[in-house]
Amino acid sequence: MKTQLAMVVDSTLCIDCKGCMAACKVENKVPDGHWRNWIKTDGVDFSMGETFSRMHFQPGNCMHCDVPTCVHACPTGATYKDEKDGVVKVDDRLCIGCGSCIPACPYGARYRHPEKKIVDKCDFCDHRRARGDLPACVITCPTKARAFGDINDPDSDVARMLKDNKTVRVVNRESDTRPNIYYMGATAPLNWPVKAQAPTPIRWWGDWAKQLVWAVVGINALGVLAMLGKQLFVNDPEPGHESDSTDGGKPVETEETDHE
User: Fold this and answer.
1) Residue 258 in 3-state DSSP?
2) Cα(252)–Cα(66) distance, rounded to whole angstroms?
3) DSSP tag of 172
4) In the prediction, which pLDDT does 253 show?
């Protein structure tokens, strides 16, 4: 099976120290006023019995969904789901900073970078993983509330945790993107994700862009084939022959002959 990097979170272990948020901000140079991750808070609710008879904290970040609505909302293809690890990423070279993907995320995981003028989000610390390290939020958590790995690898910690424990995924019922952040046991709050929204022009683009792109590709392909056919089937001038030679000051018209 393909690799799918994910997190399994035991939110009952979160103490709201915000170490994960600070570590992410420093590691990824997130600008002031913006965050790549968060901790949601659920107030005391004695009606739920002992489970939530105290304040409950729920850490989270980009859910790296199996059905990412942000990808569909992107008009340039800058936002994509990486086939090699299942992480939803942003290609800085293609992002035009239009922000269409921002309301398309049910989790509010994206923001427009004020300096780079492009959209930024969690990428599971791609640069740290490239050198064999865990994401900053995972390694920093003092209570080890977050576990990280490939859920499709049966030998990974996260795969075993999913197998041995009841887990839930926090979703908006109208926009279930099949997130890859799993919470062990009960967690709260559950009702904070919003319905994914994409601007009307972007929805139109999503419906017609493929046809437009293929039309452009087809036109270019015809041009390439025409040039190739000319090189293969049309006589080249003999060595020393000048195709622009003149006769009596008038251009000499030459007729190209095709070889069957």
Assistant:
1) strand
2) 65
3) B
4) 40
**E strands in the chain:** 5-9, 37-42, 56-61, 79-81, 88-90, 111-112, 119-120, 146-150, 167-168, 181-184, 246-247, 250-251
How many helices, marked H, and strands, marked E, lie in the chain?
Answer: 6, 12
Residue with tokens 């990280």: 148
**Distance, CA of 192 to CA of 47 (rounded, Å):** 20
What is the model's pLDDT at position 121? 98
Q: Any idea which residue has 């398309």 for tokens?
A: 104
Element (H, E) at 67: none
Provide the residue ranges of all domains of the chain, joining segments of one domain with +.
5-198, 208-240
CATH top-level class of 5-198: alpha beta
**DSSP-derived secondary structure letter, 137:** H
Q: Which parts of the chain sit beneath pLDDT 70?
A: 44-54, 200-260
Q: Can you tell me whether residue 57 is helix, strand or coil?
A: strand
pLDDT digits (tens, 9 = 90+) for 126-173: 999 999 999 999 999 999 999 999 999 999 999 999 999 999 999 999
Structure confidence at residue 198 (pLDDT): 79
